[in-house]
Fold these 3 entries.
Entry 1:
Amino acid sequence: MAKYISVGKILNFHGIKGEAKVGFTKNQEDFFCSLKEVFVKTDNDYRSLKIESVRLHKNFALVKFEGINSINELLDYKGAFLYVEEETIRENLEEDEFLIDELVGLEVFDENDKKLGFVVGVSNNGASDLLSVKTNSKKVVLIPFVKAIVTDVSIRDKKVVIKNIEGLIE
């Protein structure tokens, strides 16, 4: 069975011809605009929505779906999350990009192979992604997810190696 990952949310309608105002992840304009199909979850099933057109407007996408030609036809989808199959996202990842759920749970080590804790979450402060790491002393610290600090990520070995500069992790 396919695994689905959320890529946006229908926030509202735009105009009267069934166009949807969609919010999506920052800096993912190219990926979102390349999609030909998304899925919405209804009950416990995923229903396909074919994308007829996408255009960017401010920080949103205006999406026209095949077969939805009025506000009334779109209203049932207002507030719905849009999903794609996980494989679609994996095909578009760069070499140094990861899915958040792949990072959560990885153990964090310094460059001397000393265990410092494990990843409990990923967030973004607008400038960069941040790894939330629960340390051995049970404190949660934020580690900038930049090459200068995070020197290696191995999904296979379930391991993240960081340069533990002074004050980063006590």
Entry 2:
Amino acid sequence: MTYSEICQRLSASGIENAKGEAARLLEALCGVTPEALFAAPAEQDYSSPALEEALARREAHYPLQYLLGEWEFYRQTYEVSADCLIPRSDTEILVEEAIRRLPQGARFADLCTGSGCIAISVLAERPDTFAIALDKFPRTLALAERNAQRNGVADRFSPRLDDLLAPKCPLCAEPLDAILSNPPYIPTSALPSLSPEVRSEPEAALDGGEDGLLFYRTLLFAYAKYLKEDGFFLLEIGYDQAEAVERLAREAGFPVCRLRRDYGGKDRVLLLRRSER
């Protein structure tokens, strides 16, 4: 099977970036670097059982990231699997804001941590900070712990196994400088309309309840007590949720709301404070 044939199969299956994905699969499964790939004869055969299996799964729209077993996010690389949401570039906006706004020596929490990409990328760029990373699922939290080790921040990454919606233990004893989260925010009724790739991700990481706001209500009304008086929330939101989450924030005593849009111009991250600094 040649590179051109792989590209054709992916393209025929509706994969937009067929050439790029074909190159990533060849590198991961056949050890073919991009330089070697483009220097090779056009008829070079790369056939292997592993490649054929991965290609068939990708043709069925199973996520490329899960097939590769790792993905890049911010300036780090993360192990990923079907136990976690795939890290996306839009979430880098939240990381950028946290890196910029956290005070020196900050302690923060990353709730619904998943792969750990938010907390770990902040810790990697801000070696003066410390994080609590909470997730409900043991396999997901173990994945995040491996990612913290992989990226050299395990000594400042405190994993916490608990259910954000029904916690069994207090989050922390000392107040935090910030709470970060990319919670599930897709309305339950919208889940069947998602792309096949997204539907392959954990439903628990997507389902935000009837109106998509279930986790925001809990975060703002149940977790504000863990913040310092001048602490802040940084929350990823759906593109059409800014007004609704801002309204909840004001009701919860966080009237200062700052919105950041993603690289596509869509509402993406809200910074919430009790007062102007």
Entry 3:
Amino acid sequence: MSTSAVATTPEQALSHVRQTQLLIGGEFRDAAGGKTFDTINPATEETIASVAYAQQEDVDAAVKAARRALERGDWAKMDARDRGACLYRLADLLEKHIDELAALETLDNGKPIGESRNVDLPLVIDVFRYYAGWADKIEGDTVPIRGNFFTYIRREPVGVCGQIIPWNFPLLMLSWKWGPALAAGCTSVLKPAEQTPLTALRVGELALEAGFPPGVTNVLPGYGDTGEHIVKHPDVDKVAFTGEYKTAQQIMSDAAPTLKRLTFELGGKSPNIIFADADLDAATQGAFIGLYLNQGQVCCAGSRLLVEDSIHDEFVDRLTQMSENRKVGDPFSEETEQGPQVDQQQFDKIMRYIEAGKTEGAQCLTGGGRDGNRGYFIRPTVFTNVRDDMSIARDEIFGPVMNIMRFKDFDEVIQRGNDTFYGLAAGVWTRDLSKAHRTAHALRAGTVWVNCYDKFDAAAPFGGHKMSGQGRELGQLALESYTEPKTVTINLDG
């Protein structure tokens, strides 16, 4: 049960801004050089707060604290079941402060308060509870080998983890990184996105209250150079990154000298396929949410909507009407369905793609422009007559821009669905069970949703093929990337 009041205005949300310093070794402190940066409210374009900006000296201190906790501190001595208890307590504290955290998320990110409070945070809490249950169940194996030997495999923490998260789901991405890492016994140096540092700092404070020893969870706000210092640091054992593929390519290069373990969850240009035999009401709603959720700022957004010929026109009419009726505005209003884009850079990028779509010959049926005169609001936009070679059909726009394309048959839609260098997710809508399985098996994507979209669960692994990443978040599979197997062989004759 939450004990904080629900914020209904940015001014009320500002009262929840508690931490703007770096969290290093269990203490909040200014950056060593005193450097700061402003975090901006995307709905008003006003400064929320100045936040400490971590530099190389701060990264060194955080990594040192994480190493000490990993090898010599209370964390190193803690039983696995007690690690799980810390995760359970953190989940309980997040639930206790759910309204406060939702207000901070909406203030800093711009997503509607209803999504922050009723979608993101329940998932965050569930992820921590899921991995709390895993902490004492990471087991090894015994292996029969030739001779009189006893051989077993231990699974040990991979070590100090550099974790770099994006701005679109700040709290959720934090939970996806911390959950498996902490359950496995690792320590973390986390860099939140420069656009959205506030909730990570607050959760860092709650982690200390939950009983995580100093140095286990370190939070270093900053820009790209902060992340670069983390990636290049010789005493960081693993880097987990969520973001765009060009940054991941740079991380691979920077991590090569130390052969760090790497996992990436990157972007997508996901096909969402609507067959003529689909439940039209369910498919329309699923396609709508599959694109517009979180202002379209979702890596797995169903941004290539492929609709079978015979239902195309009706489908376009339905989606266009829904888009025109979507309420854009104040993210603290419970009536708002779509808030602002996260910042000016993202706003400008989306507007460039909208203009490119018009120039390249796609038909803009609705939207296509700014909403209001303050904040980074864009009207929900629907394009039809979209060709596969257009930039709006090839590139990840990361905004409320829906592209609708026709297809004629199964073979065509599979070929076109896979015609992308991404491979994160896909959607399939059909009443034909055989067709659903054939489509899901044929699509090259890490997740395929059938007659649903954006269905996430802490137990279901998530990640991509091709340029959409490597490794998996969530589920048991995520634990594999945070553990190292060690083989021990004992001579029983000795």
